[in-house]
Amino acid sequence: MSDLSAPLDLLLLPTWLVPVEPAGVVWRDHALGVRDGRIVLLAPREEAMLHAAKEIRELTGCLLAPGLINAHGHAAMSLFRGLADDLPLMTWLQDHIWPAEARWVDEEFVRDGTELAIAEQLKSGITCFSDMYFFPEIASELVHKSGIRAQMCIPVLDFPTPGARDAGEALRKGLKLFDDLKLHPRIKVAFGPHAPYSVSDDKLENVRMLAEELDAGIHMHVQETAFEVQQSLELHGVRPMARLSRLGLLGPRFQAVHMTQVDDEDLALLVESNSSVIHCPESNLKLASGFCPVERLWNAGVNVAVGTDGAASNNDLDLLGETRTAALLAKAVAGSATALDAHRALRMATLNGARALGLDEQTGSLELGKSADMVAFDLSRLAQQPVYDPVSQLIYASGRDCVQHLWVGGKQLLDDGHLTRLDEQRILVTARAWGERIAGKAH
Ligand SMILES: CSC[C@H]1O[C@@H](n2cnc3c(O)ncnc32)[C@H](O)[C@@H]1O
Ligand SMILES: [Zn+2]
């Protein structure tokens, strides 16, 4: 319990403060105070200035918002960025990515690739990400060291993977990770069965049982393409969502990634079960997978979050850009310019992400008592003028280069665009060396 009369650790004075909850609100000339890693003060600037603070930051021209939440990705795949472009999902995955993973992915690859991804995400305004990849115990070390927040998913597939001879071993190692990290303040472990077409019923039943017992999330690629739905109808007689429902996987802890195919029955299952959907528009566009009907889902009450997917199918981890794509695409898909307006788009990239990952009591909005996970976007540049609505300017007229400062749990991880805990130069050199090795050019 923090001493309320003690000085604040940090007092931020932005031009605009967008808490996300309450929805649609922009506070001008307000301040945010932090003590012991939590938000303890939200007040008009003049009133806030009466409080003593160890550090005061003037953020003139900046919009202070909750940190962005990248609700789906494969961090270490950043080392495969640009390796196999302009291909449809199954060709990309089966003929290029899975062979490359079998050849290259080991502990060292995951360590270096995850660090690269974390550095890029922090510089893009992301304070929390979900990771679904091999050797999650190694990736977790990088999350711990860097100060970012994450959901780490235990990968489960029907075939041997880097780091696990079979699904049984993957789950055993995953349970140990769950136990090791159960008290970690920034890491939450979830289950990551890859997709309905790559995980059989018996393994999904195991996942359901364990997730229930541990109250853990289940994060899964679902209905990414029409082909996947067709194949499921042929093999199982039902669509993937109906099969997952029959197996008892759906529920508030279920995170359905992609969902480009949604019929009325799928929608009813999502609504009834209170499952979340994680929309990855740029990966879906690049692999020509299809279009997630975001507006329809949102209007039906489904919690929709946003993710970049891995850098091998995107090809960046730019969640601000992803959110802009989502907002534009939603209008085209719905045939309505009012679909996914800028304020809702920002909510999708923050609070909805936190809710999908089961972290909305800790993060996702700037509310008293929540963790001080925040980002200051600089809106003072030429291409952002004039500013009528700062949220509109952020979503439609800003790139990730406007990310100025970032904090997680009150700790500053990005200061004037510079990483405070990671060595950007070393990460760059290491990533280039991997590129040379993988391209066969290393000596
Ligand atoms: C369970 S570990 C992750 C596994 O998923 C592969 N992957 C990356 N992106 C996608 C995607 O969009 N759909 C399906 N599978 C994907 C990744 O290469 C790993 O093998
Ligand atoms: Zn993915």
UniProtKB/TrEMBL annotation:
Primary enzyme class: hydrolase
Cofactor, how bound (note): Binds 1 zinc ion per subunit.
One Pfam family per UniProt: Amidohydro_1
Enzyme Commission numbers on file: 3.5.4.28, 3.5.4.31
Keyword Oxidoreductase in record: no
InterPro entries membership: Amidohydro-rel (IPR006680), Deaminase_MtaD/DadD (IPR023512), Metal-dep_hydrolase_composite (IPR011059), Metal_Hydrolase (IPR032466), MTA/SAH_deaminase (IPR050287)
CDD domains linked: ATZ_TRZ_like
Positions that bind substrate: E101, H194, E224, D309
Domain Amidohydrolase-related as annotated: residue spans: 64-412
Catalytic activity: S-adenosyl-L-homocysteine + H2O + H(+) = S-inosyl-L-homocysteine + NH4(+); S-methyl-5'-thioadenosine + H2O + H(+) = S-methyl-5'-thioinosine + NH4(+)
Binding-site residues, Zn(2+): H72, H74, H221, D309
PANTHER family: AMIDOHYDROLASE-RELATED DOMAIN-CONTAINING PROTEIN (PTHR43794:SF11), AMINOHYDROLASE SSNA-RELATED (PTHR43794)
Family affiliation: Belongs to the metallo-dependent hydrolases superfamily. MTA/SAH deaminase family. Belongs to the metallo-dependent hydrolases superfamily. ATZ/TRZ family.
Protein task: Catalyzes the deamination of 5-methylthioadenosine and S-adenosyl-L-homocysteine into 5-methylthioinosine and S-inosyl-L-homocysteine, respectively. Is also able to deaminate adenosine.
Name of the protein: 5-methylthioadenosine/S-adenosylhomocysteine deaminase
Organism per entry: Zestomonas carbonaria
Gene field: mtaD
